[in-house]
Amino acid sequence: MAALLPPLTAPLPLIDDETEHVKAPITDTHKDSSYIPRGPVTAPLSYFSPPENGATPFYYVEEPPEGEPRQNFGATDIETAIQDIRGHESTFTLDNNAFASVTNVASEETAFDDDEHIKKVYYPEVEQLILKHVPGAQRVLLFDHTIRRATPNALRAPVTRVHIDQTPASARQRVQFHLPDEAETLLAGRYRIINVWRPINGAVQSHPLSFADAASVSDEDVVGVEHRYPDRTGETAGIKYNANMRWHYLSGMDNDERLFLQCFDSHNLGSKVPHTAFVDPRSPEGAKPRESIEVRALIFG
Fold first, then answer.
1. Alpha-carbon distance 286 to 143, whole Å?
2. Beta carbons within 10 angstroms of residue 251's beta carbon
3. What's the rounded Cα separation, in Å, for the pair 62 and 57?
4. pTM for this model (two decimals)
5. Within 10 A of 33 (CB to CB), how many other CB atoms are there?
6. Burial of 202 (C-beta count, 10 Å sphere; 0-12/13-18/19+)
7. How confident is the model at residue 169 (pLDDT cuts 50, 70, 90)?
8. Is 60:71 a contact under the CB 8 Å cutoff?
């Protein structure tokens, strides 16, 4: 069974606020509320904008020191073409594109309202799914999860900002943090960090998750952002806009589907997938608010 340990870093906040929040969807009032948007779409994605003074980007997870801003970087919204991979899922792999999908996955966890129950019931399911579907995986350590709900006053909402959860530095740091006694040996072999994402309240109608083909992402567009805690500093990545990026989503993802998002691979540093929720302009009035869970895994082998 996967070991359960506290997270080392937290996801980046939205650029325009200190807390994650839901951007109101642009709706088509002519569609029935049960409508599920499918096919290609163009929508605004929010890309990283570096500090104007060239300083290292940072964000204070808690209150910043007196005189310091909470964060020193911004965002730029750019209309982006996003292709639907529905019907072509098998075309994409973790090794080639840094994302992959699995369907017809059963689960004993249905409520997703108790963290301890999720760890007891859902974590083992995710571990076995990874061992079965991630080539070369020999050992899995699940180190945290996040539930997101696109509802008012939700604790965590969909993140509408292009990002990658890990960088090479933070991936190495995670191994050292979670498995300090074995870190030297484990870091000598292949280690990966993969998020396993799924909806938890039925087919997605609003705030779908988009992801960029890693083969289209330039290292120059990936920028480390310090997450400053009172006792340590973690790191995630902001993503600058590049017209060469190829963006995708899986329309109408349902509860029995899983999306693997590879954030880091020590044997292929280019295999990392920028991702973000986006406001789909085709979402119908009265669309069901998206609810989802992502589980983050260290994978060895």
1. 35
2. 20
3. 16
4. 0.88
5. 12
6. middle
7. very high
8. yes
